[in-house]
Amino acid sequence: MSIYDRQNAKKLFKNSRRGKVCGVFSGLGDYLGINPLILRLAGIVAILMTGPIVILGYLLVSVLLDDSGHGLYGN
Q1: What is the pLDDT of residue 19?
Q2: What does the alpha-carbon distance between residue 51 and residue 11 come to, in Å, rounded to a whole number?
Q3: pTM here?
Q4: What distance in Å separates the CA atoms of residue 34 and residue 18, rounded to the nearest whole number?
Q5: Which of 9, 59, 47 is CA-nearest to residue 31?
Q6: Strand partners, 67
Q7: Which residues contact 47 (CB under 8 A, 6 or more apart)?
Q8: How many CB atoms lie within 10 A of CB 66?
Q9: What CA dihedral angle connects 40, 43, 45 and 51, to 10 degrees?
Q10: 21-73: per-residue pLDDT in tens?
Q11: CA quadruple 74, 45, 16, 57: dihedral positive or negative?
């Protein structure tokens, strides 16, 4: 991987400015180019199906991801 590729590589960050709880789904939506509302609804369905596993995963990801800088994804 060249230096140019590393500098322009897209990274996953949480977006706490636009997020509802911790900003994980908002950051994931920015990264994937998907509306965060769709991801939040999928998260609610996953919580109803699996219970606390998704909640623990969400909390773990919210601790591990860095918060995005302002305008990182072109917003």
Answers
A1: 76
A2: 29
A3: 0.72
A4: 14
A5: 9
A6: 14
A7: 54, 55
A8: 10
A9: -140
A10: 888 888 888 888 899 999 999 999 999 999 889 899 989 988 888 887 655 55
A11: negative
| DSSP category for residue 38 | H
Q: Token digits for 23?
A: 């900003």
Kindly state the tokens that stand for 39. 């991801």
47 CB burial (10 A radius; 0-12, 13-18, 19+): middle
- Judged by DSSP in three states, 55 sits in helix
| CA 8 distance to own-chain centroid | 19
CA distance 8 to 48: 38
Between CA 1 and CA 20 the distance in angstroms is 36
